[in-house]
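FAQ

Q: What does a record look like?
A: Structure on top, sequence underneath. For example:
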């Protein structure tokens, strides 16, 4: 049975009442009517002059924002008078093992759907590859990840969503220029207000571009004169390609390959800041996972070690293109998923290396550990509770200093001991 339809159990009911009593005083401090009035003054006094200065007409502005109210249901709001919401790292969410990202059932479903679309848009993809030099697999994999090829619901009216965040979200300074950019998109006439939908966080259409990225990178892929990333797959795919090419995609290189790494190559040598010539990695004993040498054509190019679970998972040698994918979403696992799915559209082979057991601690535990590392002078890339390459490198160097076995991944004992 769907849990949402299960009868309310007494204990849950009691908990709900306790929760209501707990939030009531804070909520009472938020005067919604006054906040709505302040929102209207802010739109008229601050946003209109800013929008007008970048070419938004009064007609466009009034059509977009006349009569708009705040969306109080959005996450991460910090209305005037309310205590700020807890930071995500304060939430006791369990740390998610990197292997969980690569669910085989999910990947196989994405491969099947993606292959159909690659066949359907064969001619479009030919033209996009010719123009931008980004392979179709990468484009379709990003499309898959961002919106399940446009099948995911993208239900929020973009202007109202962005205006609410720009007025009263925890990251309002981040959202304010995005609201202005969204008004510029409307002014351009590429999309109507009714069709301009976003995620709850204001990301637009099937490729989930923030409005400022839309202004920079969206292109008309089907030649009808509009850049419609909401309804036109050729526009979606060409816009993703334009983004990647402008962010530095090298058409002569792949994204990376799975590799075997000998013990003599420490896991803390990974990451974008520790690139080496491919010939150097080969000389150090790194091989393709099937035992073949690293690609000879690449031997004079810089390459990077990537070990998303330290020694407790598969290892990769990646090119600069891997870090271009990260410009889309700054996560090693995101970029690896995109590269891996792109490969699987051809051969549908899983990684050879296995993901070991990682976890048994919360993101808050990791964040506390990161703060301790920062206090000791290590750069862990911020105490966000996520284990990115900087945290893995810091953990590996710390393990090496102590003479511990190198894993470059935190474990439950470590996060508890470094508090
Ligand atoms: Ca178009």
């Amino acid at each position: 049975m769907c849990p949402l339809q299960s009868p309310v159990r007494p204990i849950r009911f009691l908990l709900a009442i306790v929760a209501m009593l707990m939030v009531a005083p804070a909520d009472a401090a938020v005067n919604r009517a006054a906040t709505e009035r302040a929102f209207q003054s802010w739109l008229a006094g601050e946003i209109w002059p800013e929008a007008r200065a970048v070419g938004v007409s009064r007609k466009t502005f009034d059509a977009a924002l006349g009569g708009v109210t705040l969306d109080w249901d959005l996450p991460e709001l910090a209305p005037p008078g309310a205590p700020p919401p807890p930071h995500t790292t304060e939430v006791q969410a369990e740390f998610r093992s990197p292997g969980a990202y690569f669910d085989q059932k999910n990947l196989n479903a994405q491969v099947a759907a993606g292959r159909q679309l690659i066949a359907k848009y064969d001619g479009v993809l030919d033209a996009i590859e010719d123009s931008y030099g980004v392979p179709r697999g990468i484009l379709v994999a990003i499309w898959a990840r961002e919106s399940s090829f446009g099948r995911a619901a993208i239900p929020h009216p973009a202007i109202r969503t962005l205006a609410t965040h720009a007025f009263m979200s925890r990251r309002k300074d981040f959202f304010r220029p995005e609201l202005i950019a969204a008004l510029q998109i409307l002014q351009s006439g590429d999309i109507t207000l009714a069709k301009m939908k976003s995620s709850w966080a204001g990301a637009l259409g099937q490729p989930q571009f923030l409005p400022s990225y839309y202004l920079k990178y969206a292109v008309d892929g089907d030649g009808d004169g509009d850049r419609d990333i909401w309804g036109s797959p050729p526009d979606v795919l060409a816009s993703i390609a334009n983004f990647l090419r402008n962010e530095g995609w090298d058409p002569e290189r792949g994204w990376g390959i799975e590799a075997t790494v000998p013990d003599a190559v420490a896991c803390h040598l990974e990451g974008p800041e520790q690139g080496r010539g491919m010939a150097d990695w080969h000389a150090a004993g790194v091989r393709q996972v099937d035992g073949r040498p690293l690609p000879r054509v690449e031997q004079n190019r810089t390459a990077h070690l990537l070990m998303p679970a330290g020694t407790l998972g598969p290892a990769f040698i990646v090119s600069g293109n891997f870090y271009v994918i990260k410009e889309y979403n700054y996560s090693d696992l995101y970029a690896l998923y995109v590269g891996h799915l792109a490969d699987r559209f051809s051969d549908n082979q899983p990684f050879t290396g296995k993901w070991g057991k990682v976890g048994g601690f919360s993101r808050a535990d990791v964040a506390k550990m990161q703060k301790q590392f920062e206090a000791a002078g290590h750069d862990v890339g911020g105490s966000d509770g996520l284990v990115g390459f900087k945290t893995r490198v810091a953990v590996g160097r710390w393990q090496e200093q102590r003479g511990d076995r190198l894993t470059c991944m935190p474990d439950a004992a470590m996060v508890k001991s470094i508090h």
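Q: Is there anything notable about this one?
A: The pocket of calcium ion is lined by residues 220, 222, 224, 226, 228, 232, 235 (CB under 6 Å).
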